[in-house]
């Protein structure tokens, strides 16, 4: 008896499902958009918005667009737009890059891709250039798992093994130096448009370097990763020798910094185990190891001095925290540091003011003059990489942190993608960043993508 009842219920359910599907199909057919009618012209009556840039969603209104995305081609300013939706009287697409001319054209295609109908909008779209993330150099293959290591022109130089820190030659802006840690150290030669390799003589040869920097005299500084107080760690190489001849060195255990004060040439170092900032006087050759004491020890400490020399940012990378230390002109040193943004030993991704912001492994940053701040006490914003948030953040002089590039639509997934700063661009553990005020762009060491990315206004 139970079996008979269950069979009856199953049969009723099956009949109901079939009836539902039949009605649904009938409704879809009645409400579906009509296909393109070759006996009628295609028309564009309007579009919105009237202006925008790469990635803007554009809606065209008109008639006889059909109902098949694969049969509709849209160009804006002569560039192919990605069509994402078509109804007979409207279609949706994304504005492509370099659509400068702004003319909008719609072509209806047959199954072989041949033109059936064509129409051009009477009004032009106003294309607005925007800042974009692109790939400046580097390439990988086999799903981003392999790359060649070689010198060569920017468009054929393989991938970049490792990138920990980048610095422009302050005396010749055609050379950008990339510290490769325990891998090869590279040079971007903009004059010849080549990626090259730089080597150092013993005792730096084949040793792990944490930072490359420059003195105010133009000497190249290499900072070795040394865990004792008996070996030199900071080495100076003369410009006259092509950075091949060592002219000075000093001991600096656990050092990850060699920042030169722009006005007097003092070199500021850091020490991991003690949590201190050291001061090296190039005139007296005295290195005061613990000139500035931090509240925390056993931290990866990186420093960046403001272009005016009035203060420096101290990044505690593995503690997700940035501090500030102001310069005391009378004492000729930096003072006790204080919080700028983040929360000690708390990693997250939160934009906001000061200790309300959350960071995740911040690393190298750079100061960039903001024309909107002209005449103010501090005219610079600070842009820095966040390794484990896979993005570039921006810090204002008032301490407000915002996300500048990466994490499209809030997604923190690592990846590789170019395009709009916040809608499309993805990074994979970006570590180092510099601003090129000659070319008006950023260069970013995107470590796990083995590429150097560029952030600039669209060409």
Describe this structure in words.
This protein has 459 residues and is mainly beta. The protein folds into 2 domains: 43-127, Immunoglobulin-like; 131-457, TolB, C-terminal domain (Neuraminidase), CATH 2.120.10.30. It has one helix at 2-31; strands at 43-48, 51-52, 57-63, 72-76, 79-87, 90-94, 104-109, 115-120, 126-127, 131-137, 152-153, 165-168, 175-179, 185-189, 194-198, 209-214, 220-224, 232-237, 246-251, 259-260, 267-271, 276-281, 286-293, 301-305, 311-316, 321-328, 333-334, 338-342, 352-353, 362-369, 380-386, 391-395, 400-406, 419-420, 430-436, 441-446, 451-457. It has a 7-stranded antiparallel β-sheet with strand order 1-3-6-5-4-7-8, with no helix packed on it. It has a 5-stranded antiparallel β-sheet with strand order 34-10-37-36-35, with no helix packed on it. Strands 11-15-14-13-12 form a 5-stranded antiparallel β-sheet, with no helix packed on it. The protein is elongated, with a radius of gyration of 29 Å. InterPro entries: 6-blade_b-propeller_TolB-like (IPR011042), Ig-like_fold (IPR013783), Ig_E-set (IPR014756), IPT_dom (IPR002909).
Task: Please outline the helices and strands.
Elements: H1 2-31, E1 43-48, E2 51-52, E3 57-63, E4 72-76, E5 79-87, E6 90-94, E7 104-109, E8 115-120, E9 126-127, E10 131-137, E11 152-153, E12 165-168, E13 175-179, E14 185-189, E15 194-198, E16 209-214, E17 220-224, E18 232-237, E19 246-251, E20 259-260, E21 267-271, E22 276-281, E23 286-293, E24 301-305, E25 311-316, E26 321-328, E27 333-334, E28 338-342, E29 352-353, E30 362-369, E31 380-386, E32 391-395, E33 400-406, E34 419-420, E35 430-436, E36 441-446, E37 451-457
Parallel strand pairs: 2-9
Antiparallel strand pairs: 1-3, 3-6, 4-5, 4-7, 5-6, 7-8, 10-34, 10-37, 11-15, 12-13, 13-14, 14-15, 16-17, 17-18, 18-19, 20-21, 21-22, 22-23, 24-25, 25-26, 26-27, 26-28, 29-33, 30-31, 31-32, 32-33, 35-36, 36-37
């Amino acid at each position: 008896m139970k079996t008979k009842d269950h069979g009856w219920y199953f049969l009723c359910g099956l009949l109901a499902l079939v009836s539902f599907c039949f009605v649904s199909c009938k409704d879809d057919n009645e409400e579906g958009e009509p296909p393109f009618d070759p006996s009628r012209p295609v028309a564009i009556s309007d579009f919105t918005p009237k202006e925008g840039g790469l990635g803007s969603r554009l809606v065209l209104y008109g008639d006889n667009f059909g109902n098949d995305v694969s049969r509709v081609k849209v160009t804006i300013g002569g560039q192919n737009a990605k069509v994402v939706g078509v109804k007979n009287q409207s279609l949706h697409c994304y504005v492509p890059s370099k659509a400068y001319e702004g003319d909008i054209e719609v072509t209806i295609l047959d199954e072989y891709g041949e033109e059936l109908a064509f129409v051009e909008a009477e009004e032009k779209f106003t294309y607005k250039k925007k800042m974009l993330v692109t790939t400046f150099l580097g390439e990988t293959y086999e799903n981003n798992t392999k790359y060649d290591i070689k010198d060569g022109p920017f468009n054929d130089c393989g991938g970049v093994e490792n990138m920990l820190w980048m610095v422009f030659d302050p005396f010749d802006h055609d050379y950008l130096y990339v510290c490769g840690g325990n891998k090869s150290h590279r040079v971007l030669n903009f004059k010849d448009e080549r990626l090259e390799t730089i080597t150092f003589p013993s005792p730096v040869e084949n040793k792990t370097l944490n930072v490359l920097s420059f003195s105010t005299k133009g000497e190249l500084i290499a900072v070795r990763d040394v865990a004792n107080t008996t070996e030199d760690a900071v080495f100076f190489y003369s410009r006259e020798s092509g950075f091949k001849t060592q002219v000075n060195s000093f001991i600096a255990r656990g050092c990850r910094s060699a920042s030169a004060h722009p006005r007097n040439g003092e070199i500021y170092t850091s020490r991991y185990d003690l949590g201190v900032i050291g001061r090296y006087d190039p005139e007296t050759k005295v290195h005061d190891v613990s000139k500035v004491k931090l509240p925390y020890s056993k931290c990866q400490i990186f420093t960046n001095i403001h272009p005016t020399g009035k203060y420096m940012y101290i990044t505690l990378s593995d503690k997700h925290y940035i501090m500030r230390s102001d310069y005391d002109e009378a004492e000729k040193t930096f003072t006790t540091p204080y919080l700028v943004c983040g929360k000690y030993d708390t990693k997250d991704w939160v934009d906001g003011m000061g200790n309300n912001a959350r960071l995740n492994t911040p690393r190298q940053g750079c100061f960039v003059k903001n024309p909107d701040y002209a005449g103010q006490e501090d005219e610079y914003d600070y842009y820095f990489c966040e390794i484990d948030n896979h993005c570039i953040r921006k810090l204002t002089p008032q301490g407000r942190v915002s996300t500048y590039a990466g994490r499209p639509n809030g997604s923190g997934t690592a990846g590789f993608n170019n395009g709009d700063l916040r809608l499309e661009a993805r990074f994979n553990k970006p570590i180092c960043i510099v601003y090129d005020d000659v070319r008006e762009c950023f260069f970013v060491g995107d470590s796990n993508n083995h590429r150097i990315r560029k952030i600039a206004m669209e060409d």
